Fold this protein.
Amino acid sequence: MDYSGFLNFASNLAMEAGAFLKRFRGEGHLDIQAKVAGLDFVTNADKTAQKMIFESIAATYPDHGFIGEEDGLGNDGARALLRDGAERLFWVVDPLDGTLNYIRGLNGYSVSIALVRGTKPVVGVVYAPVEDELYSACEGGGAFKNGMPISASDCRDIHNALIIPSVPLTDMDLRDKMLAINSRLSRITLNTRIFGSAAVEISHVAHAGVDAYFEYGIYPWDVAAGVIIAREAGAIASSLDGREYELGDPGILVSAEGIHMAMVEAIGFDGK
């Protein structure tokens, strides 16, 4: 199937939503609400951007499904919806990935829009409005940054790998577990970076800015677009134990092919 028309639509929509977010951060009144234990947040900017994206998709592709971060679905709910509608195309959207960055006036937030068939992303767009960086891909078409082809790194030695070890937001036991993994990895890798937006972080793996990213406690809207971009760039997207990543899995590892198994072994995730 030719997905190029969907890709062009998603690219334009992500840039439109990103321009709104950038403008609103400078001019609008930011209404901030805590979602979970005062550790995760949503703003009126998130909600307005999602509404803009949803309305545009509904008007253009009325037969398609839609899953957005602000709909309140968890991993199980999103996975069930995607599996039950396996023959239907779904748009999976994070209207503002990196909300805490946005609230604090930091760069690195993004708009993430993916088109999904079943639990497989087939189109992905990630737009970072402050940096004006548009990452895009569709199945079988390669990956691009601002229209230029990109590819994941050829790193083959974990000791030379620059990695992104994300830290869970709200589960303190899981945060401790992941920090312990991060500590172990810090001794056998080159160094670490954390950007605060999963969509941006996976895109950095796709264009070889970093060599690997991993996280637990992730949702489909955080990573759907990034997964297809990374895969089309030649990276591997798996669960933390090495199985092929499927939307709804709570853990994800995206890495250069040459260090993937070494990352799985070093993470040593037991699924708990």
